[in-house]
Amino acid sequence: NREENSYVQLVDIQFVAAMGPPGGGRTFITQRYVRHYNLLNFVPFNNESLTRVFSTIMDWALGKGYANPVKQLSGSVVEATINIYDTIAAGLLPTPMKSHYTFNLRDMAKVFQGITQGSPKEINAKDVFVSLWCHEAMRVFHDRLINDHDRDWFVAELSKGCSDAFGLDFEKKVCVKGLPLMFGSYLDYQQMPEKRMYKKVLLEEDLQESMDYFLKDYNQNSGSRMALVLFLNAMEHVSRIARIISQPYGNALLMGVGGSGRKSLTTLAVYVCDFKFCQIAVGKSYGRNEWGEDLKRILTAAGAEDGEGVPTVFLFDDTQIVYESFLEDVNLLLNTGEVPNLFVQEDLSVINDLLGPAANAAGVNTGIMAEMYKYFISRCRANLHVVITMSPIGDAFRRRLRMFPALVNCCTLDWFTAWPEQALRSVASYFLGDVDIEEDVKAGVVDVCVDMQERVSGMAVKYVAEMQRHYYVTPTSYLELINTFKKLLGAQRNDVMERKLRYDNGLEKILSTEAQVDGMQTELVALQPKLKQATIETDALLDKIAVDTKDANEVEAVVSKERALCNQQAAEASKIAADCQADLDKAMPALQGAIKALDSLSKGDIVEVKAMKKPPDAVKLVMEAVCLMMGVKPDKIKDPNGGTKKIDDYWGPAQKQLLGDARFLQNLKDYDKDNMDEKMVVKVNGYTQMEMFSVDVVKKSLDCGCWLM
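Structure (tokenized):
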């Protein structure tokens, strides 16, 4: 026991093992291992045993209210089924290209299982019952056949069996004119799924109406819209898939090339049956862990969702096989309904909680984990339906069928053949419906598309026969042909429309220019007299301009002389300005010193000067110059030196008008030295030339006088 790390002794154990014959994916075992067993070989059942087994089943099924004419056919239908099984098993043997042509008792059982889907209300006559038997036999055996030769051979054998066992003409009593033989419960699309009857399709209009209803309802309720063309062949495949997944343990293997509609038709069939649809999304990082989680999700939905599980369809495509182990797990699902060691203890606890009430109602001991897991697996097998889509191209298909036998043994096969002419026309008409062309032209384009597809398909068959190499013409090629035509048509129309717009624009410009030229021509005619008058006036103006030009030239000569004179005067003025600037540069330090000297004077200094009765001559000379600058007029007094002549005296006015003025110092500071009278400047300049008019002389007489100076 590795969990407890203890030894376990096995006492009185007997092994019972079962296996199929080695080969076909089954392991070869050695004689060293086989020698421990007593071997029992189960040979195939003989016809008597098969007749007894299936007669018992049919008697039980037909005893549920069927009419006596139908009940009496129980033995005949068993005999006919055994005969057709023996015939096809002997006549259609597996080959490398037909590796799935293997038949066993499961296939025979599927025929009777399909018959039990009928109801006494609908299967009420001999011909209807025989039609149901023929339909189920075709679905089990006919749908897996890969070419028309094999299918025609089977239909001939079925027709013979129908005549020998039931005494009915297959073409007249069983087949429906213009339709393949089809049964289904989808015709009662207005009813709930559990109340629908499994009945024969008699009119294509009824089939089309029901399928269109389900497709429209799906597109309205689903987040992803499907643009399907439901031609007869497509509806036939929907009917086949819906029949398979509606049966207990019904699984399907859909074989066909890419673009044949396997996944889209499966999606619609699942919606018809009102089942839950599941599939995986494979990305770049998708691996075994993600695969395990997806399987858990799918199995939990099928076995435990809503307390007892819901019918679930798992769609698995061969392009999603990242590892071959994925197919091994699917093989186990088909055989046993489980994948070993998938769920851990925590997952099982959640599942047990979901299934608890339903398990109690079913009499399962919920306290035993093994019993609960067994009940969960039974719910998974009952509700889970696996639909596998594979392409028959290449060796991988045959290898996988050989390695995983459950893909054939546990599935009902449906081979998607090339689209017939009616399907090609329907698809072309649908996708060309939005193209804006005439109906007769559109019909011609449809004919061309169909003819191209059929001729290329025929050439591909000839190519295989002659060159032993395959060239696959798929429905995707046909759709690409139609889309390419639409793209080229749109591009050409856009190019033509662009050229037309350019032509219309150019034509409009030409017409507009022509209208403008006509208008301008009319205006020119109307303006002709004015143009003549304007010409005369212009000539006169030119004559006048010539005279004025002559006068202007004369004036220009005079102006040139005056300009030369002005330039000379300007040069002289510039020289004077330079001299003045030089004098100014010399005077500026004296001016700054005078301003500084004024700032050092006080009222006491002024009072001191004013109080002098007999000021020194130097002081009087300074005050006389100040009076001239301030515009103070002198008094006329007698000459102190004698004589009768009167002289100018500035001391008295200076005392009164200047020294006596309280604003004297401020007036000196605010003196307008930039606008002095020229005559005054000449007079004052004369004082500055006197020997007595110097700072040293004045300072000897009075300190404050020198600052006035």
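The beta strands are 183-184, 199-200, 252-255, 276-279, 312-317, 384-390, 412-415, 635-638, 646-649. The first helix runs from residue 31 to 34.
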